[in-house]
Amino acid sequence: MIKHEGQRVAILIDVQNLYYSAKNLYGARVNFREILKSGAGGRNLIRAFAYVVKTKSGEEEPFFKALKSLGIEMRVRELQEYFGGLKKADWDVGMTVDAIRIASSVDTVVLVSGDGDFFQLVEYLKNQGKRIEVMAFGKTTSSKLKKSADEFVDLDKDQKRYLLIK
């Protein structure tokens, strides 16, 4: 299946994965407007979800508003803090469930994450006849995930487009 104008697309954005890759690799922030534009690729965008983590301080609220202003639906999880200082807010299962739920309404799922834990999800959705596109920073993306997708968009290759340099 190739890209065409009538394709129905869902975009699922693993914000933490992109945020830390951009920060650690380039000391930059992600241009989510361009992620959304590129992911849709002129096709019929059905829904776009961003999976984010909310802290007690609430310092991320302006960022959340910016994502919402782009038409991205927010999936928010509270940061869990455990004894000993461990912090966790894993969205893998939530993203997987949403992808499976929306699959019947779309032709293409654009997974914006380099997390290799999504390999099985990609294989499952492909077996359901869906086109799977992965967008992520190639340097921090699982090789299995890259190979399993119908298309891999390496954000490293067009930094001017996908990064907001300070």
Account of the protein in words:
The protein has one domain: Rossmann fold. The chain has 7 helices and 10 strands. The chain has helices at about 15-25, 30-40, 60-70, 90-100, 120-125, 145-150, 160; strands spanning about 10-15, 30, 45-55, 75-80, 80, 85-90, 110, 130-135, 150-155, 165. The strands form 3 sheets. Strands 4-3-1-7-8-9 form a 6-stranded parallel beta sheet, with helices on both faces. It has a two-stranded antiparallel sheet with strand order 2-10. The chain has a two-stranded antiparallel sheet with strand order 5-6. The N and C termini lie far apart (about 40 Å).
Any descriptors?
single chain; Rossmann fold; 7 helices; 166 residues; 28% strand; alpha/beta; 6-stranded parallel sheet
Fraction in helix: 25-40%
Sketch the topology as an H/E string, one letter per element. Answer: EHEHEHEEEHEHEHEHE
Largest sheet: 6 strands, parallel
Q: How many structural domains?
A: 1
CATH topology: Rossmann fold
| Strand percentage | 25-35%
The assigned CATH architecture is 3-Layer(aba) Sandwich
| CA-CA gap between termini | 39 Å
CATH homologous superfamily name?
Answer: 5'-nuclease
Query: Structural class per helix/strand content?
Result: alpha/beta
The general outline is: globular
Widest sheet: strand ordering: 4-3-1-7-8-9
Per CATH, the class reads Alpha Beta
Oligomer: single chain
| CA-based gyration radius | 15 Å
- Low-confidence segments, ≥5 residues, pLDDT <50? none
- Give me the count of strands: 10
Number of H/I helices: 7
Question: How would you state the average pLDDT, rounded?
Answer: 91
